[in-house]
Request: fold
Amino acid sequence: MKRIISGVVVLFLTIILSLSIFYPQASSFPEDRLLPDENCTVILVGKKASADGSTMTTHTADCGVCDWTWRYVPPADHKPGEKRKIYRISQTRTWPPEQGLKWDLIKKDFSGVEIPQVPHTFGYLHGVFGYLNDQQLAMGESTIGHRPKMSNPTPTPVFNITMLTLLAMERCRTAREAIRLMGSLAEQYGYGGEDGGEMLAVADLEEVWVFEIMPVGPLWTPQSGKPGAVWCAQRVPDDQVSVCPNESRIGEIDLNNPDYFMASSNVISYAVENGYWDPKSGQAFNWKKAYSPVEGSAKNDPRRARMWRFFDLVSPSSKFSPSLPNMEFPFSVRPDKPLSVKDVMNLTRDKGYGTFFDPTRGIRGGPYKNPNYEAGARLISDRRAEYTTVTQCRSWLPAPIGGLVWIAWGAQDTSCFLPFYAGVKTLPGSFSIGDHWVLNRSSARWAFDYTDFHVQVCYDLAMAEVKKAQQQWEDAVIEQIPEIDQKAFEIYRQNPRKVSDFLTGFCLNNADRVIKAWWQLGDELLLKFNHLSYYNSERRTVERRKMEFPDFWKKAVRIIEAFIE
Reply:
């Protein structure tokens, strides 16, 4: 009997200790590090690293409480002397629906600053940030943090990251143009407010760049004559891929190589003035070590697992170790195989299955292997996602047809990517409404949350049904895109103005059908798995055996019960 009790205690303690790996009690971050929330992951794919020659970026907007609405801003011509008002747009703020839409209410937060308007502004699609314009300029975002004394929460800086992306969408055709514009505006008018260290993936039909920007402290004023921001950009080699998991990614820089590096005039001097880098140290200047240092690895802090997991997925032959400090990972890597758009979508859905960080390992996922319980490790797919984007810029097609942004509402694993061409001239009305606190059946997002909620009850069984729907609605439209491209190109050759009507019709019709399908899918999951039974509608039978808890779960429960008794 003593041996049995001893064995049970050992087993129980083993379970507790294994769980403690996922709940580290002490952080290994330095005290002078301002940590960003673990919110957004960005993936970047060069044109020669993709299967079809497109450049790609992603953004997983993992917030859980943010405004999720999207809108289309049409192109416009402007008269000489017109001004562009600059607003203070919060990434996270929301308003009750009865007060109005966010993108109307932001006008109440006018900064008081107007800048000269340009003769023509491009049309574009945006959510929290600008994502794609009608010139095939695309973006994704990830918060990376900065040293605390660099923060500038005062009202002095005019620009934050959202406003910078919107202006780039309005005014720029290429990634380089966008980086120079955003950097120069931030330097002239100041950057900060609610925002701190931020990273943007900036892509066009030829190149993909990492752009990182940070404030320069609360004492900055325009009268100082100094730049109101510090920023740096590095190009991802065409045959490589990169990632930003809420960590600065740019290391040593070579400003004598403008094809791969750009930076603000104070990129080094600001670090020297503030003691972040000593030119007499004998060490090369390193952007991330100077301005946004992060200690730790995936192994000793599972919150940092995304970096390792991405490189392990795209380049398993490199055999990167989870023990490798995150600061030591390469900026980019050649993937073992070119990535298709579906491959990239799958990367955004990754839960780390089969790895040390598998959230369903042992009994962690419960009887139905649910990866969305609190497991401690932070991987690419996150249940808090507002939406996820995958952008494609395709050089072999005219801009209205070549640019694509795929949008998946809510949690990546239970959602469906919907394509929208750069040439569309409207978005579904259901994209512009809804929030977390009021269930709204007219909101597109709620259709996907509705299905996601019912999946959580018996995850692995319900996901089998979701994957069938994704195959029907997501995989099928991916296969259909070349046909739509060809039809659109034929229309474009005859009359470029008519192509927008065709593309808009296709995208709206597809979105409408998928949204309806996901409301129906939620209904079907509720019916099929109601009361933790399996209701077969065709046979009008209840097949309880399909819902029985697996043996491993029953055994674990018996062991714990024996220990408690």
User: Anything to note?
Assistant: Residues 459-494 form the longest helix (36 residues). The first strand starts at residue 40 and ends at 45.
